[in-house]
UniProtKB/TrEMBL annotation:
It comes from the Bacteria. Gene3D superfamilies: P-loop containing nucleotide triphosphate hydrolases. Residues 5-167 form the NadR/Ttd14 AAA domain. This is AAA family ATPase.
Length: 178
């Protein structure tokens, strides 16, 4: 069984909070590549930022997501949760440039067939120095991912808008029942 589980969906939908709870419960977590790329670029004065060079940003995301997948613990008896995935970045790049990024990269990394998507949650959405896009852009991103993952053969479960503990229970019980 593949223990690499994707948690993706709408920006500002509570993914990072959920992942922190899953990590607290003993599971490995791979942090979101997008935030890490933005932090690196801001720190070094780079231009591969989504508001300056979206294609460059997405290419950095793809490279980081591939590296994250290659370095993730494979011998874990616990789940390894990814905050977003290579598929997210490849899908965005393909939409933006018409490059066949999904066909080329979508099979490069194997993940558990069960994917969890955080739906838009306007009540908790906030912008910050690293997340400068608005809720409308985040909703568009979510809708794209909601279409892409099933097309690639993944089973998608929407995360309920409940407490973080209840969300973590939902994820773990869904995985246990598959």
């Amino acid at each position: 069984m593949n223990h690499f589980v994707i948690i993706s969906g709408c920006s500002g939908g509570g993914k990072s909070t959920l992942l922190a709870e899953l990590q607290r419960r003993g599971h490995a977590v791979v942090e979101e590549p997008g935030r890490r790329v933005v932090q690196q670029e801001l720190r070094t004065g780079g231009r591969a930022l989504p508001w300056l060079d979206l294609v460059g940003f997405l290419r950095r995301l793809i490279a980081m997501a591939q590296d994250d997948h290659a370095k993730a613990p494979r011998d874990s008896k616990h789940w390894v949760f990814f905050d977003r995935s290579l598929i997210d970045a490849a899908s965005a790049l393909q939409t933006l440039t018409n490059e066949p990024a999904l066909a080329r990269l979508g099979q490069a990394c194997d993940y558990n067939p069960q994917v969890f998507l955080a739906p838009p949650w306007p009540e908790i959405y906030v912008q910050d120095t690293e997340r400068r896009h608005g809720l409308d852009a985040a909703v568009g991103e979510f809708e794209q991912l909601q279409r892409v993952y099933p097309l690639l053969g993944y089973t998608v479960s929407l995360l309920p808008k409940v407490s973080v503990a209840e969300r973590a229970d939902f994820v773990l019980s869904t995985l246990a029942s598959n």
